[in-house]
Amino acid sequence: MTGTYDTDVAIVGGGPVGTALAIALAQQGIGSIVIERHPTPQPVPKGQNLTQRTMEHFRRWGLEGDLRGARTLAPGQPSAGMTAFGTLSGEYQYPWLQRARLDGFYAARNERLPQYATEAVLRSSALATPEIDYRAGWTAEQIEHDADGVTIGLTASGGERDAIRARYVVGADGSRSRVREAVGITQTLADHDRVMVLLVFRSPEFDTIMERFPGVAFVNVMNAELEGYWQFFGRVDASETWFFHAPVEAERVDGVDLSALLERAVGQRFAFEVEYLGQWDLRFALADSYRSGRAFIAGDACHSHPPYGGYGINSGFEDATNLAWKLAAEIRGWAGPALLDSYDAERRPVFASTRDDFIDRAIRDDRDFLAVFDPERDRAAFEAEWAHRDDGAQREVDAFEPHYEGSPIVGGVGSPSALGGHTMEARAGHHLAPGTTSDGVEVFDALARDGLTLLAASGAETTPFREVADRLGVPLTVVGVDADTAARYQAALVLVRPDEYVAWAGEAASDASSVLSLAIGS
User: Would you say 172 and 301 are in contact if contact means Cβ atoms under 8 Å apart?
Assistant: First the structure.
């Protein structure tokens, strides 16, 4: 089926990931229609921990200030994490997920605010962006894709109907993705067979209890009876409102004794008011492909997992930025034949590693620890292992460094993974660390939004790259960096993708044609 298109990209699902994708596409001159069934963001406080990498995206989109202004914590209010043993009233705690230790490797600090606040900032920006047609209150009912494009039948909340034709469709429509099902993408599931309660409560008394731990905004309470599954508190606003996750022995949470559940984690009873009560199944799901022809999926439509460690929404934003530049390159005509397939080749293994090396491993490690160590049985052995776990919690933060080593558009040895390590060196397939241009500007802000960027030390020869880029029709921006930055990057030339990942780094452009051809999937 051929004919005219209503848009380049139809995005089903206008939550944070879908809307971020639309904004990233718009910055590269690509229009989209976003189809979102909810008229307004849903007020459930999830997806709260935004990493430095995610905040770089918001800086890139010109929204960092708006997002920080929307935080529900007070200005300057700390948001540290903590792990506790037994109960919050016990004697054993250590810091957890201290991501601020990594600030020097990124061009933005991390942030904490509920997903609905993040979504509101993104939605406001999308509604003000001419390239984005944001349709709130509409549902994608039928999705048909062929060799030339995608046709989507829409129904509005008021009953109106419409149909649109797009070159591509992206399903950012959650774990029960209609797009994923319509285009026949299967999933691999790993069920932990646990029902988890999600409670949002207000309690001045609990705030008083938490005064024992100044600056702590989220805490995991370990309990041997729960076999490694978490009891997790997270602050929602500046005072009094918190959310709580915990496993329950019930198919439905409606009749669960919430006071007893909270007492088990805290070590004492306290007064609270329920603001929201829900549940979710503790399972992992990973799509067996992120692409089917002209259809792609992103965010929870690709991968879902327990909300342990704040990986979910951050992984979704990385899906969006990875896919956006590749779709833009394809639509604008400078992508090689392998570029779109590299979205799956890069992003799917990274989530599999996030699942296996971080989330599932944390559950298993906690289970093994709780089965062996108990201060009531052997205090000395427990305290020695507890101190080792404290050190390990810090190492875990550094080890989470998603990269694309060995991907089809990076090459070399290795394979894409979430497991890595932070360094200032510019490494192919890894995130680019901050630096300074020869004009004194942060390198991050000088990177091209709609093509590749070649960072060059003083005296480095860039002509071969310019000539090859002209021949291939690849947009290439050349930016000089100062001597200190070149020394930190350990390379005179660094080729950077629009998602701020290094495509190549070296001392000389001996084979610029091969380097650029690989980076664009040719």
Answer: yes
Residues 6 or more apart whose CB falls under 8 angstroms from that of 187 comprise 180, 285, 286, 287, 288
Report the alpha-carbon distance of residue 515 to residue 39 in Å, rounded: 46
Around 40, how many Cα atoms within 13 Å sit in the side-chain half-sphere?
Answer: 3
At 312-329, the pLDDT tens digits run: 899 999 999 999 999 999
H-type helices in 354-438, by residue range? Answer: 360-372, 379-399
**Nearest alpha-carbon partner for 17 in 311, 285, 317, 290:** 317
In 3D space, the residue among 35, 289, 326, 10 whose CA is nearest the CA of residue 155 turns out to be 35
- Of 160, 172, 127, give the one whose Cα is nearest residue 9: 172
Q: Over the stretch 10-22, which tens digit does the pLDDT of each residue have?
A: 999 999 999 999 9
Task: Answer whether 509's CB lies under 8 Å from 368's CB.
Answer: no
Predicted local distance difference test score (pLDDT) of residue 44? 78
Classify residue 98 by burial, with Cβ atoms within 10 Å: 0-12, 13-18, 19+.
Answer: middle
Determine the Cα–Cα distance for residues 56 and 99; give it in Å rounded to an integer: 14
pTM over 0.70: yes
8 Å CB contact between 233 and 84:
no
